[in-house]
Specification:
By secondary structure, the chain is α/β, with parallel strands linked by helices. Helix content is about 35%, strand content about 15%. The termini are far apart.
Length: about 325
């Protein structure tokens, strides 16, 4: 396993981290026992950054991760997020000062720890930005001052909003998802320069486009338009015909980004985890990569509408019912 420094934090993080959405049963069910085995297997393979959220499984992911880390907390960089907590989207976000303090303290209990290494506001495009900036981020800073959190940041989908927040706020890290993968390459041009200028750590998540670039395909809740899903299905079929895995190709492509400090994987099983790790040091098959890129080219860099309308990316596609 290769380790890199996470921005200016001084934290040494594994080249790939564990995205704990799967522990919240958001990509299919998993037992508590298998969750613990999966976390332990990841640690044993050298993965040390674990990223979860109150929102994943509505606290299920945090509870399972906390239990799995009993006796192994000092072996990991532990990251979670607050501000997003439930559906529907209209009511499932609260970035107020009191809420962020309260949610962080509840996360500490579920994760069975006295501090978090990283705490971030979750999907800030859904919040009133005056509240995010004037309450949510000051709450993060107070948690850091109190020693409950070591490093702070924000996450979200629209890159312009992340870039503006990174440029104007005193943060340590940011997490972007679905913006550096086979289907979208805009992270490098739209966010990386600001991250580098400020010395922030950069985490890249959802490199399979939230399950789209897999044989299983996207879950019913996936927000992308059908046009994007269609090319992903075609690419998956092509890979199967070649005896290859679209998810494996997606991993190989994403981990080559030299600007990213940590790329999150989201395995559901030990088999998925162990089959992914050999891909980290193997270049994609050039012919397969070229064929898949040709298939998905009509949908590359297309995005979908999410968050408040003022934060929609230019040309973002509405969900097709």
């Amino acid at each position: 396993m290769i380790y890199r420094q996470l921005g200016k934090t001084g934290l040494q993080v594994s080249q790939v981290g564990f995205g704990c959405v799967s522990l919240g049963d958001m990509y299919g069910g998993i037992t508590d026992e298998n969750s613990t085995r999966l976390v332990h297997a990841a640690i044993d393979q050298g993965i040390n950054l674990f990223d979860t959220s109150t929102y994943y499984g509505r606290t299920l992911s945090e509870n399972r991760l906390g239990q799995a880390l009993v006796g192994r907390r000092d072996q990991v960089v532990l990251a979670t997020k607050g501000g997003r907590f439930d559906a529907p989207l209209e009511t499932g976000f609260d970035f107020s000062y009191a809420s962020i303090i309260r949610m962080c303290e509840a996360s500490l209990l579920r994760l069975k720890t006295d501090h978090l290494d990283i705490y971030q506001l979750h999907d800030i495009e859904f919040g009133d930005q005056s509240v995010v900036l004037n309450e949510g981020i000051p709450a993060l800073q107070q948690l850091k001052k109190d020693g409950k959190v070591r490093f702070i940041g924000v996450t979200g989908y629209p890159l312009a909003l992340l870039r503006h927040t990174v440029e104007t706020q005193d943060l340590d890290v940011t997490l972007s998802y679905c913006h550096y993968s086979l289907l979208n390459h805009t992270l490098n041009s739209e966010l990386v320069p600001a991250v580098k200028a400020k010395g922030l750590g950069l985490i890249n998540a959802s490199i399979t486009h939230m399950g789209m670039l897999t044989d299983q395909g996207p879950q019913p809740w996936h927000p992308a338009a059908e046009r994007i899903k269609a090319v992903a299905r075609e690419a998956a079929a092509h890979c199967r015909a070649q005896g290859a895995s679209l998810a494996g190709l997606a991993i190989q492509f994403a981990v080559q980004n030299p600007h990213v400090d940590c790329t999150l994987l989201g395995p559901r099983t030990e088999a998925e985890l162990l089959s992914s790790l050999p891909l980290l040091n193997a270049a994609p098959d050039p012919a397969l990569l070229a064929a898949v890129q040709a298939i998905i080219e009509p949908a590359v860099n297309l995005s979908w509408q999410t968050g408040r309308p003022e934060h929609f990316e230019p040309g973002a596609m509405a969900l097709e019912k």
